[in-house]
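re: ur msg from earlier - yeah i can do the NAP complex, just paste it... oh wait u already did. ok heres what im feeding in:
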Amino acid sequence: MKILVTGANGQVGSELLQADLINKYNAQVIGCDRALLDITNIDNIKAMLNQEKPDVVINAAAYTAVDKAEEEIDLAFTINEKGSENLAIICNELAIPLLHISTDYVFDGAKNSAYDENDAPNPTGIYGKSKLAGEQAIIKNHPMHYILRVAWVFGEHGNNFVKTMLRIGKDREQLNVVADQKGAPTYAKDIGETLLKLAVQINEETNDWGIYHYSGATPTSWHGFAQTIFEKAVKTNILANKPKVLPITSKEYPTPAERPLNSILNCDKITQTFNIEQSNWQLGLNNVLQAWKK
Ligand SMILES: NC(=O)c1ccc[n+]([C@@H]2O[C@H](COP(=O)([O-])OP(=O)(O)OC[C@H]3O[C@@H](n4cnc5c(N)ncnc54)[C@H](OP(=O)(O)O)[C@@H]3O)[C@@H](O)[C@H]2O)c1
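and the outut:
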């Protein structure tokens, strides 16, 4: 199966190009970074898909700067809404299934339990609004789609919370981390593998298109995640001492974009439909720490 990946330099996109995953799923993956394929340019998309003729497109490209989006509103919507729409229109024209990644930030976080795919989105910030608009553009323009909503992504490639904590933890004895936002970290490589599993099972009879939630199996808070990162960093000799992690509230750490207090995704649908287990983020974290040491 020939799979074309957009946003191939991103945290998730780069996982889709790892040789072990590609070999495991016997896929041929064409990775396109922004310079090669800009999803805001519909002619660029059309030319690339006509040239490569992939069996599936995975869109890992996105505008992901959650706080900056509050100022760069047009840019966030141009990439996340219009870019997704462009891909959906051309993929529909060429009858190529489209796999797309979305976010827990489409929800407002007010629910008391995990969000499932039937819960009504209600994003509070520009990033979440632009991602929801992207989902809607795909649903409207292309029936053959999987939209995978993920949360709290971390991995070996790109910037993420784990790397920030390791950098800060090196120089500090004590730090404050938000404890009232709940969610489940998701290992980027597990997202890559899930997308490849979804891609390779597609056939002419596939009729289970739609939205799926996928995240780590054991929810925590950013504070809990930081504690685990530091405990493991000490055990693996990355840090000599574990910094003291003080729990604070979101109100005590104001950000331009409001974050959902509850980001926990119910992932039963993807498990029941495709037998895909949730990400074991603790194992993923071990891998990231090993890579950090090198
Ligand atoms: N990170 C998280 O915690 C998180 C949580 C929930 C959902 N998600 C979703 O997961 C997906 C992957 O996120 P990620 O963490 O891998 O993001 P990322 O590391 O920021 O990667 C996004 C990639 O998209 C590229 N890109 C931006 N605009 C583009 C355009 N117009 N055309 C083509 N490529 C473009 C970027 O290229 P440049 O390097 O040139 O900017 C970057 O390589 C996104 O859909 C995101 O919304 C992420």
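cool cool. The longest strand covers residues 98-103. ping me if u need the other ligands too
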